[in-house]
Every structure is written in structure tokens, then in C-alpha cells.
């Protein structure tokens, strides 16, 4: 057993110590089991915990205090049910909602925890539940099975104990990754006796959220072996193309990297929430001032009048002086005026948000039929925030693009193919393009499409340059192949696989070569029988192909897959490879090329080459790479051809296509022999190997002969460019945050219309130290706005005062149209404290920003930078787990760093981003509908709701204030207690909900046609502190009218039969009826979209009020419960008097005059930009414009390369090393610290 000193237990979180097959040690350290828990409540703690959480809200706590105050008879003039009933309704609805949400979390937890896995127990593999797995256990996983926990790979069914995993839910990448066990544990295989006896001890990192970092040491049989990330299978991965693998559990349950990245659920509050909280505090302050004024008034009245009036109105025993009486009155009015902050405000907001969330879920135009995936509002608290977004931070791969590469066009020896022109040379419209028929080629990929028959004719006619071009594409790559026959896989190049997918090779443990990690294809080569004799080398090949077989390529990058597939369809079929040969079927003839060298790709070289010996014993070098690089390597005789090809490349670039140039060179045998010796020496060098190889490569990659260029379309998601153009019109800025390389990201930016050729300039920030990055940012800002560098600039003056955090950096307008590209290295420098404002000011002046080669942490940092210094709403959208940091947030500098709104794309790259998002859908272009339609409507509705809600409660409550001056400040209420109870809860609830759920200022069509409407939300024009003050003043005015008009009406007035009607109950009836009519007319004026439901809610509520009036004031209820229902017959006796109805009408007219005047006069004298847009919409509705004729203008622009290739370094050496051969290696002893 592994002995651990007690002091090491204390620092167990500094490093993890474990031993295989030793659960006692696991228990000793207290490591958690593999069960996960995302739920908050259980049956026992739900009620106390939920109530505790709800009463943490200031409003709920406030009303709870009011309930207790109302139980004190000395200060309460209202029955306690006027507050208890609304409070109970609010708490109950919220509790039910929380319970339903937590029940779903319980169900998800149970589903995951009860999955089954094979667990090694007492020498046998037994099926057990995930939740029962513990640290130190050995488990066995099978193909297509999810990884149970974070496990150390011990052995697998693959040669060299390789295991293939899909990491889509972790890093958002669809390509497979390769993990490899160290050779000492690969000998265990799946032998239960050996696995049971394995007692290796592991010392490793403590649990953390770094997906790509792991370091540890395995101690076994007295030897130590280094462990790294390449040996670890993470929870959330799926085993692919591997029959079985065994692993040692390192991290379980909440300690796994997947759960560490999930983090705690954070409750996001909108800007509107923060504003309302501030306004509620203002109302509390106003309430306190009003109560104080009334209390002072009461004290004066008691000392001046009440003291001498005790014979008629004696003081209570507990009232010893006017001061005591005034103190009690203060709290009495605190209760009466509590409706200034109505509890129904918060529950109404929740209902409105819930309803608007359902609109998103039900939107058929955001439903993606191919995957049967609807849009989903995963939170109900951020709807109106969708109408205020200023910055969108987007991932690239899988979000803007489909990560599907399509061979679209090519240029071969100066001739352009793929343009789809007719015989007369005119361009054929897309709708009339005819797909090329490849039926003549039995090995063609049926999914490949091309629309230019002239290229097929050139191939069939034997055009030498075309043949050489496609031969180059079929040889110069690192693709692997396999054949699938009737659901089974026939090995053509490599071991049997079930799914042809791009996969990645990671550093392997054995051999001389060291390969950096990256995307690649690992397939095991086939053993061939004699087939063809070359002059100097005998190459063995025997290809047995079933007519029913399907040839499948596994490419390191989708770019390579597209190029090799194109060559295949045009008759140059890459069939298989070994470490020494490449087999190609050229126009039906099988030819085997000896592979002499692969000059591997890297980001500096931006090219790759292969050197082969043809069956005719010719030495050929084929090269493909970036045009800017290949041009420098061409032979001088290619100048004219290069110029023509460059014109074609320019055309490809303007279409956003990804390009490569293709060239070749025939080598002299003696020259190659000399070069080969140099190459071998460089490969064996221990110091400076990379630099030496680069120099050797350059010696042979020169004097190349140009063959042509390829153009690949990185297929965007549907309507992405149109969406971004529309969002730009709405003044929404798009920043792309991607881990991809710069060239790829920039080309996608042009394809998506984030950048365009009309831009004045695109700045590249590529410095790798503080000084360089600072200078590049300053240079860019000097170009965009020279005066921003002057000390007299307003922003500089503001920043020079060193304002306290948090402060906002003002928006700055550039003098043109600019873009910014910055790499992850430069970003690391720019995010330092002294440079972050420089970066922010420069980036925010640009139309579009591309941040490439970013880590997930940097994504969160960029989002947080904008959030911190800009008063703007941010939205992050992505589809992979590497986007979770900006969608949901991570702990950064002690707080959660995340965008205000997180949107997940439920695409090809896993579900992690979607599961951590606030909103999710399947296509990026749904974002414009989410923001410009649902977001804008939700914002408008919420603004109308808040302004109306505050107004109606001010008008309702402040009547008590005026009445206090007439009742000796005695805390007598104007209204009947039942009217106070039902006013917010019943009488006015449906109209305001109808307004907030159904109203539309313009239709969805006009919302999308005029994105400029969205700008109002970004500046929060429809509800802010100024609008609130307007509501307050309007409410004060209305309460004044509602009190004094009825007061003047009934003063010394009589009925038609001569009876007096100057009584309190009649006055109360007139005031509350006038109030109902006023608030009904006010909401009718605010309603712009009338539906049957709107009419029913608005006018029906007013009618319901009158029905309730006659019911509550009926003889039956009043005689049955006289202490509760005290207005006996008031409605029947008062509402038949004409002067009362005239008073109601006069009050209503006087109250709505300011609102009507504001609606009509403001657009005339103080028009906002949105009013001008409404005028354009009304004009278009009257005089529809003809559809615009779309013409494409070609603007002269500076030459830019469209080179973008997602290939990564390291796979060429793996192929030539023979590492992937199917023969299982002989067992050998592992050296200590071998890596």
C-alpha cells in the first residue's frame, strides 16, 4: 500500500496522490465519488431555502415587514390581507417556477449518474453505475462510449495503445484526437489478471479547469514515468474507432475538468433590473419624505386642533402627546402608501419575461428543420436585454462557418475553371448551373459537386498540365484512406474504422521524433504483396477493391480533404499509403510512388512539399502553400504565368475563397542524394532541429514551376453575410474571437462582410512584446482619429483625471472605416493594465475586430474588458466548450467574467456551449431575428410596462397624500380596502400584461427591413431616469386631478331627489372609478398593436371592475359580513347620478391631455432618430418601393492573399516514421522519464 505522511493529507489539494486498485487510500484522502449534482433543493430543504432566497430580494423583505406592521393595531388602518394575499401569490408562483426548474436538474443528474460502465472489481469486469466509480478504479470503455471520468489511458485495442476520442463537448472541435498510453502500461492490454495486479502510484496536478494541461508522475515497479495531457481521457469525450480501452480514474465527479469548467450557475441581471432597483430606492426615499411631511402635519394638527378636540375625538391611552401620535402616523402612512412600490411589479415582470421567452421557443422561423431543433430561451430573465446589444463576440468555426470545405474553383496553367460560363463566354446564373456528371469514375465521391464541364473535358482529353495539377493534389498531402464495404471496413490504408473523420495526432511516447500536437489523421498502413517493380526500389502493392466499396478519407484538416477529394473525382484517386509509398489510381491505372520525404507544414513556412519517385524513376517535388510564399520560390520563367494566376487569385479573394498555389520541380538524382544526407543529419540533430530543417527545406524548395492555384469555399452558415450587414446597420459591432490562425480568420471576416474591400484600412497587431504592441495600437489610433492622441482630446482629459472604477470610456468616432486584427500573443500584452485602455479605444473605433489564436481565458478577458469600460450590453455566441468562458463566464479577478447574454449554437461541435447558454438555436442568422425582432419587441414592451406601471401606481397612491390634508392626517384611506387589494392584483393586471405580451410598434418585417429602429434600445431611450421622472410628474398631476375634481363635484352637492351625496363612500367610489377609467385610457393610448386579446384585456378589465363593484357593494355580502364589506348599496345609489359621470369624464379628459399632447407634439418639435425611421416606414406602407436591382460593384483594392489553411505541423514525420503500422510492437522495457 502507498504510505502517505499525515502532513501530506493537509496539502492534498496542492497535488493529487492515488494508487490503482486502492479504494482505502481514496477514502483516506476524501476524494469525491463520480456523482454530479447540479440541483439546488431536495424535499426537506426546498421550502426554507426557497423562502430564504426569495426574501433576500429587497421588495419581498419589504412587504414581509409591512405584513408585521399591519398586525400592530396602533398603526394599521388597513387590513393585513391587503398585503398578505399579494405576497402569498408572488411567493407561490416563484416557488412553483423554481421547483419545476430544479426538478429538471434532478432528472438530468439522475440520468447521467445512472449510466453504466465496466468497472474492475475483484479481478472481474462488472457493470456498475457512473456514480459508484472512485479515484483509483480501473474501468474499461468501448467504442462510441462516453468517458466516465478523467482517466489515465493504460491500454487499448489499437497499436501502440492509441485511443481515438471525440472532444466536441470540450473544445468544440469535430475532428478526432489521438491519445496514447505509455508503453509500460500498454503491456497490460485487457488482461484482467495484469490489470488487477497493477498497483501504480500517481502523483499529479490537483483538480483544475485547464482542458489542455495535465502533469504527473507514474511510479510503477520502482521506475518513474512522466505523464502529460496526451495520456489523459477527459470526461465528456467519446471513444471513437477504438474497440476498447482501459484507464485509471484520476479525477471524478465535481473534480473532473468538464465540471470544473461548468462552474456555478450565475444569475444574470439586466440593465433594466439595475435601473429598477435604483428607482425603487428613489421611491423609498420619496415615500419616507412623504410620510415625514404627513407626520409633521399630523403633529401640528394635533397640537393646534386635535388637542382641543378630544371631547369629540379622544386620544387613545397610548398617545401621550402629539409627538407620539405623529410617530405612529408616520408608520401608518408608511403602510398606506406602500403601493408606491407594488409587489405585483416583480411578479408582473417575471410573467412578461416568461411570455416573451415562449415567443422565442415558438418561433417557427427560428426552427431548424434539418436537425429538428427549435430556438430555445434557456433563461427568462434577459429578454429585454436582447433589445439593447451593442457588441457581439462570436466564435468562428461552427458559429459563422459550417467547417465544411468545398472545392469551388481552380486555376491551371493560366486557365480558370469553375466560373460556369456558357460557350459564348457569358456567366451562367447560379439557378441554371448544371452539376458535372462523374459517373464515368467509379471511385468518385458522390457528394462532390462541381459546375464546370470544361475541366472534365480537359482531364479526359489528356491535358498534361491538368493531369500534373491533379497528380500534385493526390500526392502532396497527409491524408489517410480506408474502404467501407456493406457496413464493414476493408483496410486499404490503416486499421478498420467505423467512421471516416478527421482526427488529430498528439505527441507519442516512443521513437526519436518529437511531434508537437495538432490536428492530423492517424491511420495504420496496409501490407502489400508484390505488384510493380521500380528501377531502384521494389515497392509492394496489391490493392483488392470491392465494387461495392466506399473509399473514405481521413484528413488532418478539412482543406486537405477537399483537395484530395477533388483530385479523386477528376480521375486521380489517392488509394493508400505506407510509410514509404503512395498509391494513386490515375485515370483507371494503378501507380505506386515511392515516398522519399515529406517537408512538413508549419505556420512560418506556410507550405508543405513531398518528394516522390515515380514509376518511371523520375524524382519529383510537389509543393502547395500560400501564394505570398510560393511566388518567391518560382523559377524566373514563370513570371507571365504567375501574373495571370495572381489575377485569378485576386478574384478568388474577393469572393472570400481560401486559396493555395500549387507548384512542382523535377530533381536531379545527384542533387537529391546530397540533399538527403543533409536532411537526415538535420533530423537527428538534438539542438536547433527546427531551424536546421527549415534551412534544408529551403535548399530544395526553389526554382519551382507553377502549376496553378486552388480555391476552396469554407462554407458559411446560411445567410451569415446578410446577417452581419443587417446587424451593422443596427449599430451592432461584431468581434470574432477564435482560436484559429490569422489567415483563416481574416478570410472568413471578408467572406462574412465583417471586413470589406471598401475599408480604408485593416490594422494588423502582431507584436510580441509590450513596446511593439503599444506602438502598433497607437499607430492605428493615430490613423483613425489623429486628435485622439492630443492631450486636449475630451477622452484623454477624462482619463487623465483618473476616475474611480467603474467608469465608462466615451465612444469615439473614427474618420473612416477600419478593421483590426490582433493575435493571441499580442492580445496577452495588450490586456495588461497599462495597455488595456489603449486596446479598447483602438478596437472600439473599428467596424470589425478579429482576435485570433485565442485561449478560452482570453475570450473571457476581452469580453470583460468591454463590459468594464463601456456602458453597453454585450452578447457572446459560440458552439464549443472553449466558448463557455465568454458565454457563461469564469472566475476572473474575483468576479464572473462573461457577456451579459450568452448564446449557444447547437451545431456540429457538441452541446457544451448550448447547455451553458442563455439562448440557443442552430443557425447564426437566427441571431438577427433574436435581436431585431424578439429583443426589440421585448425591450419596447418592458419599457411601456414600467412607465405605465409606475404611473398608474403613483396616480393611485398619491391621492392618499392629498386626502391627508382634509382628514387631519389621520391615516384614513380614500379607497375601499377591497379596491386596494384588487387594484394591482386583478383590476389592472391583465391590461398591462396584454400590453407587455402582445404589443408591437411595427411588424417583424419592418423590424428587419429597418434595423435602425434597434438603436433606441442601445441608448435606452424608452425608459430611463428621465422617463421615470416624467412618470412621477404625470402621476402627481393625475392624482391631483383625481382627488380635487371629485372633491369639487360632491362638495355641497345634492342628488336630483334633494338628498345629500357629500359622503365619504360616494367620494371614494367616484375617485376609484375615475382612476380606473384614467388608467384604462392611458394604456389604450400606449397600445399600438390592437388584437382581440388586447380589446378583451383592456376593456374587459374595466367591465370586470364594474361587475365586481356591484358584487362587493351588494346587499347580500354587506349584510352577511358587515365588518368586511362596508359600502352597502353605494354603487347602486351613486352611479345613477349624472354629475358623478360628468366628474369621471372630466377627470379622465384632464388626465389624458398631457399624454395625448406628448404623443403628437414631441415628434414635431423634438424628433428622435427612431421617429424619422417610423416616418419612412409609414411612407413605404403608403407608397411601396419597387424591389432594388442588385448589382455587384467591383472596387479596386490592394492585393490581399486569400491563403487560409487549417493544416498543422507534426503529421508528416509521423507518417514517414512508420509509427502507425498495424503490426503490434514487440514488448520492451520502458526507460524512466521517457516521453
Automatic annotation (TrEMBL):
One of its GO terms (molecular function) is ATP hydrolysis activity. Residues 916-1167 form the P-type ATPase C-terminal domain. The chain crosses the membrane at residues 55-72, 78-96, 275-298, 945-965, 977-998, 1028-1047, 1067-1085, 1092-1113, 1140-1161. Its main location: membrane. CDD domains: P-type_ATPase_APLT_Dnf-like. The keyword Phosphoprotein does not apply. It catalyses: ATP + H2O + phospholipidSide 1 = ADP + phosphate + phospholipidSide 2. The keyword Heme does not apply. Mg(2+) binds at residues 395, 397, 879, 883. Residues 482-550 form the Tetrahydrofolate dehydrogenase/cyclohydrolase NAD(P)-binding domain. Its cofactor is Mg(2+). InterPro entries: ATPase_P-typ_cyto_dom_N, ATPase_P-typ_P_site, ATPase_P-typ_TM_dom_sf, ATPase_P-typ_transduc_dom_A_sf, HAD-like_sf, HAD_sf, P-type_ATPase_IV, P-type_ATPase_N. It is a multi-pass membrane protein. It comes from the Eukaryota. Keywords: ATP-binding, Magnesium, Membrane, Metal-binding, Nucleotide-binding, Translocase, Transmembrane, Transmembrane helix, Transport. It is found in: Endomembrane system; Membrane. Its EC number is 7.6.2.1. Residues 19-84 form the P-type ATPase N-terminal domain. PROSITE patterns: ATPASE_E1_E2 (PS00154). The active site is at 395 (4-aspartylphosphate intermediate). One of its GO terms (biological process) is phospholipid translocation. GO terms for cellular component: plasma membrane; trans-Golgi network. ATP binds at residues 395-397, 560, 601, 624, 658, 738-740, 853, 859, 882-883. Belongs to the cation transport ATPase (P-type) (TC 3.A.3) family. Type IV subfamily. This is Phospholipid-transporting ATPase. It comes from Fukomys damarensis.
Amino acid at each position: 500500500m502507498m504510505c502517505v505522511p499525515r502532513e501530506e493529507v493537509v496539502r492534498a489539494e496542492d497535488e493529487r496522490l492515488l494508487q490503482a486498485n486502492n479504494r482505502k487510500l481514496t477514502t483516506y484522502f476524501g476524494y469525491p465519488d463520480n456523482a454530479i449534482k447540479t440541483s439546488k433543493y431536495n424535499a426537506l430543504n426546498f421550502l426554507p431555502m426557497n423562502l430564504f432566497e426569495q426574501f433576500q430580494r429587497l421588495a419581498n423583505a419589504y412587504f414581509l415587514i409591512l405584513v408585521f406592521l399591519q398586525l400592530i393595531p396602533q398603526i394599521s388602518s388597513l387590513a393585513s390581507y391587503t398585503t398578505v394575499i399579494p405576497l402569498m401569490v408572488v411567493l407561490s408562483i416563484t416557488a412553483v417556477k423554481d421547483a419545476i426548474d430544479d426538478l429538471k436538474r434532478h432528472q438530468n443528474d439522475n440520468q447521467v449518474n445512472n449510466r453504466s460502465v465496466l468497472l474492475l472489481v475483484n479481478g472481474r469486469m462488472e457493470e456498475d453505475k457512473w456514480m459508484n466509480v472512485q479515484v483509483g478504479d480501473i474501468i474499461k470503455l468501448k467504442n462510441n462510449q462516453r468517458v466516465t471520468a478523467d482517466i489515465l489511458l493504460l491500454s487499448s485495442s489499437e497499436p501502440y495503445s492509441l485511443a481515438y476520442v471525440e472532444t466536441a463537448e470540450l473544445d468544440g472541435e469535430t475532428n478526432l484526437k489521438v491519445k496514447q498510453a505509455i508503453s509500460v502500461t500498454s503491456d497490460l492490454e485487457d488482461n484482467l489478471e495484469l490489470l488487477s495486479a497493477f498497483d501504480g502510484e500517481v502523483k499529479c496536478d490537483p483538480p483544475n479547469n485547464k482542458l489542455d494541461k495535465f502533469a504527473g508522475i507514474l511510479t510503477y515497479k520502482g521506475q518513474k514515468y512522466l505523464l502529460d495531457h496526451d495520456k489523459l481521457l477527459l470526461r465528456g469525450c467519446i471513444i471513437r474507432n477504438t474497440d476498447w480501452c482501459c484507464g485509471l480514474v484520476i479525477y471524478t465527479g465535481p473534480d473532473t475538468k468538464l465540471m470544473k469548467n461548468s462552474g456555478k450557475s450565475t444569475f444574470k441581471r439586466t440593465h433594466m433590473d439595475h435601473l429598477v432597483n435604483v428607482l425603487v430606492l428613489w421611491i423609498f426615499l420619496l415615500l419616507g419624505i412623504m410620510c415625514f411631511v404627513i407626520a409633521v402635519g399630523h403633529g401640528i394638527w394635533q397640537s393646534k386642533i386635535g388637542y382641543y378636540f378630544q371631547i369629540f375625538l379622544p386620544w387613545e391611552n397610548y398617545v401621550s402627546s402629539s409627538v407620539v401620535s405623529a410617530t405612529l402616523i408616520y408608520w401608518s402612512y408608511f403602510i398606506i402608501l406602500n403601493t408606491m412600490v407594488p409587489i405585483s411589479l416583480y411578479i408582473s415582470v417575471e410573467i412578461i419575461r416568461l411570455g416573451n421567452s415562449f415567443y422565442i421557443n415558438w418561433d417557427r422561423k427560428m426552427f431548424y428543420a434539418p436537425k429538428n431543433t427549435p430556438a430555445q430561451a434557456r433563461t427568462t430573465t434577459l429578454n429585454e436585454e436582447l433589445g439593447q446589444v451593442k457588441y457581439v463576440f462570436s466564435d468562428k468555426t461552427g458559429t459563422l462557418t459550417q467547417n465544411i470545405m468545398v472545392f469551388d474553383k481552380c486555376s491551371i496553367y493560366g486557365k480558370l475553371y469553375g466560373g460556369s460560363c456558357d460557350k459564348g463566354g457569358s456567366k451562367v446564373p447560379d439557378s441554371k448551373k448544371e452539376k458535372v456528371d462523374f459517373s464515368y469514375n467509379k471511385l468518385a465521391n458522390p457528394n462532390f459537386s462541381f459546375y464546370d464541364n470544361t475541366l472534365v473535358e480537359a482531364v479526359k482529353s489528356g491535358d498534361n498540365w491538368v493531369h500534373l495539377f491533379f497528380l500534385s493534389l493526390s500526392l502532396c498531402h497527409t491524408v489517410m484512406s480506408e474502404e467501407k464495404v456493406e457496413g464493414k471496413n476493408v483496410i486499404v490504408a490503416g486499421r478498420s474504422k467505423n467512421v471516416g473523420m478527421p482526427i488529430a495526432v498528439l505527441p507519442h511516447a516512443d521513437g526519436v521524433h518529437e511531434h508537437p500536437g495538432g490536428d492530423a489523421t492517424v491511420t495504420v498502413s496496409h501490407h502489400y504483396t508484390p505488384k510493380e517493380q521500380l528501377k531502384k526500389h521494389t515497392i509492394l502493392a496489391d490493392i483488392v477493391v470491392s465494387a461495392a466499396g466506399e473509399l473514405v478519407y481521413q484528413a488532418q484538416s478539412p482543406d486537405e480533404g477537399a483537395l484530395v477529394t477533388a483530385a479523386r473525382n477528376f480521375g486521380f484517386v489517392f488509394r493508400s499509403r505506407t510509410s514509404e509509398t503512395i498509391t494513386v489510381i490515375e485515370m483507371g491505372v494503378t501507380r505506386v510512388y515511392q515516398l522519399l520525404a515529406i517537408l512538413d507544414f508549419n505556420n512560418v513556412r506556410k507550405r508543405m512539399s513531398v518528394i516522390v519517385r515515380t514509376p518511371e524513376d523520375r524524382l519529383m517535388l510537389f509543393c502547395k502553400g500560400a501564394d505570398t510564399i510560393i511566388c518567391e520560390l518560382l523559377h524566373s520563367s514563370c513570371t507571365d504565368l504567375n501574373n495571370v494566376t495572381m489575377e485569378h487569385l485576386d478574384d478568388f479573394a474577393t469572393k472570400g475563397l481560401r486559396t493555395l498555389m500549387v507548384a512542382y520541380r523535377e530533381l536531379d538524382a545527384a542533387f537529391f542524394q546530397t540533399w538527403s544526407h543533409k536532411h537526415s543529419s538535420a533530423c537527428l540533430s538534438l539542438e536547433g532541429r527546427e531551424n536546421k530543417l527549415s534551412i534544408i527545406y529551403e535548399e530544395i524548395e526553389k526554382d519551382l514551376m507553377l502549376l496553378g492555384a486552388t480555391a476552396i469555399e469554407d462554407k458559411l452558415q446560411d445567410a451569415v453575410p446578410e446577417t452581419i450587414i443587417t446587424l451593422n446597420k443596427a449599430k451592432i459591432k461584431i468581434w470574432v474571437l477564435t482560436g484559429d490562425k490569422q489567415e483563416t480568420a481574416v478570410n472568413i471576416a471578408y467572406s462574412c462582410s465583417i471586413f470589406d474591400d471598401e475599408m480604408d484600412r485593416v490594422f494588423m497587431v502582431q507584436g510580441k512584446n509590450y513596446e511593439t504592441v503599444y506602438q502598433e495600437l497607437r499607430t492605428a489610433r493615430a490613423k483613425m482619429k489623429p486628435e485622439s492622441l492630443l492631450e486636449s482630446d475630451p477622452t484623454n482629459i477624462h482619463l487623465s483625471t483618473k476616475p474611480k472604477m467603474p467608469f465608462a470610456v466615451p465612444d469615439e468616432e473614427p474618420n473612416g472605416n477600419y478593421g483590426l486584427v490582433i493575435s493571441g500573443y499580442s492580445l496577452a500584452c495588450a490586456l495588461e493594465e497599462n495597455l488595456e485602455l489603449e486596446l479598447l479605444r483602438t478596437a472600439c473605433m473599428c467596424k470589425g475586430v478579429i482576435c485570433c489564436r485565442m485561449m478560452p481565458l482570453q475570450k473571457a478577458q476581452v469580453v470583460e474588458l468591454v463590459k468594464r469600460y463601456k456602458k453597453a450590453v454585450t452578447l457572446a455566441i459560440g458552439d464549443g466548450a472553449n466558448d463557455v468562458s465568454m458565454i457563461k463566464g469564469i472566475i476572473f479577478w474575483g468576479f464572473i467574467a462573461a457577456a451579459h447574454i450568452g448564446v449557444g449554437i447547437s451545431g456540429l461541435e457538441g452541446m457544451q456551449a448550448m447547455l451553458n447558454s442563455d439562448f440557443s438555436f442552430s443557425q447564426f442568422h437566427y441571431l438577427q431575428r433574436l435581436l431585431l425582432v424578439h429583443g426589440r419587441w421585448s425591450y419596447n414592451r418592458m419599457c411601456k410596462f414600467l412607465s405605465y406601471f409606475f404611473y398608474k401606481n403613483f396616480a393611485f397612491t398619491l391621492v392618499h397624500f392629498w386626502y391627508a390634508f382634509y382628514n387631519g392626517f389621520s391615516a384614513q384611506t380614500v379607497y375601499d380596502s377591497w379596491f386596494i387589494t384588487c387594484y394591482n392584483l386583478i383590476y389592472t393586471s391583465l391590461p398591462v400584461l396584454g400590453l407587455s405580451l402582445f404589443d408591437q410598434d411595427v411588424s417583424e418585417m419592418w423590424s428587419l427591413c429597418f434595423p435602425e429602429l434597434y438603436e433606441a434600445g442601445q441608448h435606452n431611450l424608452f425608459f430611463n431616469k428621465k422617463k421615470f421622472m416624467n412618470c412621477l410628474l404625470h402621476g402627481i398631476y393625475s392624482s391631483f386631478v383625481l382627488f380635487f375634481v371629485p372633491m369639487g363635484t360632491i362638495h355641497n352637492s345634492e342628488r336630483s331627489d334633494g338628498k345629500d351625496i357629500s359622503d365619504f363612500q360616494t367620494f371614494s367610489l367616484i375617485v376609484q372609478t375615475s382612476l380606473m377609467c384614467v388608467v384604462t385610457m392611458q394604456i389604450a393610448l400606449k397600445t399600438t398593436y390592437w388584437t382581440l386579446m388586447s380589446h378583451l384585456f383592456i376593456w374587459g378589465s374595466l367591465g370586470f371592475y364594474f361587475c365586481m363593484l356591484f358584487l362587493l357593494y351588494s346587499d347580500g355580502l354587506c349584510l352577511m359580513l358587515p365588518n368586511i364589506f362596508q359600502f352597502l348599496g353605494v354603487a347602486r345609489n351613486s352611479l345613477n347620478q349624472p354629475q358623478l359621470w360628468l366628474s369621471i369624464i372630466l377627470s379622465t379628459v384632464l388626465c389624458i391631455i398631457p399624454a395625448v399632447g406628448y404623443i403628437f407634439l414631441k415628434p414635431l418639435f423634438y424628433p428622435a432618430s427612431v421617429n424619422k425611421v417610423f416616418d419612412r416606414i409609414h411612407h413605404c406602407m403608403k407608397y411601396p418601393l419597387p424591389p432594388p436591382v442588385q448589382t455587384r460593384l467591383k472596387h479596386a483594392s490592394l492585393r490581399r492573399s486569400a491563403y487560409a489553411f487549417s493544416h498543422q505541423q507534426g503529421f508528416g514525420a509521423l507518417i514517414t516514421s512508420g509509427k502507425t503500422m498495424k503490426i503490434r510492437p514487440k514488448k520492451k522495457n520502458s526507460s524512466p522519464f521517457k516521453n
